[in-house]
Amino acid sequence: MKKLFFFATALFAAVSFSACSDDDKDDNKDASIIGTWQITREVGYEIVPGEGKFDKDITYPIDDVNDDYGFYYTYTFNEDGSGQYKSYYYYDNNKLDSNWSVEYTISNNQLSLYEEPDNGDLTCVYDIKELTNDKLVLLYKADDGDGYQAEITITFKKI
């Protein structure tokens, strides 16, 4: 009887561990940054020397303090490492405000962004916290050694 119980337990354990495949764990394993991403939220803080700490919890589009248009921006990432930054006035029929080329690289789950690719200066580095087929979450951390610090989580939706 003990052998039968042991065999039944071992069989149950084997079936339990093999019942789900690895494919069930991650429906977004093939998610790609390629495409256009629109900002939806920023949460975190900035410490500006001489001005203090500013907490951020912004849902986009936002109303700009200088006008009544509502503001948001997008990044488009192409397969060849090139892309576009665009900002828009939401309440003015999505009127284009700014538009410039970017370049990017991804390595070790970090997105390096060059917003002025011609001069080769790195604009910033983001940790990729989440990337699915329709959501991108980036973490920006900065400490320039002169008092400026920031830690901001930025969420995008794919459009």
Structural notes for this entry:
The chain has one helix at residues 2-18, and strands spanning 35-48, 52-59, 71-77, 82-89, 95-107, 110-114, 124-131, 135-143, 149-158. The protein is mostly beta strands and 159 residues long. Strands 1-3-4-5-6-7-8-9 form an eight-stranded antiparallel beta barrel. The longest helix is centred in the N-terminal third of the chain and has 17 residues, at 2-18. It is globular, with a radius of gyration of 23 Å.
Describe the SSE topology.
Elements: H1 2-18, E1 35-48, E2 52-59, E3 71-77, E4 82-89, E5 95-107, E6 110-114, E7 124-131, E8 135-143, E9 149-158
Question: Would you summarize the structure shown here?
Answer:
By secondary structure, the protein is mainly beta. The protein is built from one helix and nine strands; from the N terminus they run H-E-E-E-E-E-E-E-E-E. The chain has one helix at residues 2-18, and strands at residues 35-48, 52-59, 71-77, 82-89, 95-107, 110-114, 124-131, 135-143, 149-158.
Structural features:
about 160 residues, 1 helix, 9 strands, disordered N terminus
Q: What is the topology, as strand order, of the major beta sheet? A: 1-3-4-5-6-7-8-9
What is the count of β-strands?
9
SS strand fraction:
over 45%
User: What distance lies between the first and last C-alpha atoms, to the nearest angstrom?
Assistant: 62 Å
Order of helices and strands: HEEEEEEEEE
Shape, principal axes of CA atoms:
globular
pLDDT averaged residue by residue: 80
Query: What ranges have pLDDT less than 50 throughout 5 or more consecutive residues?
Result: 1-26
Radius of gyration: 23 Å
Major β-sheet profile: 8 strands, antiparallel, barrel
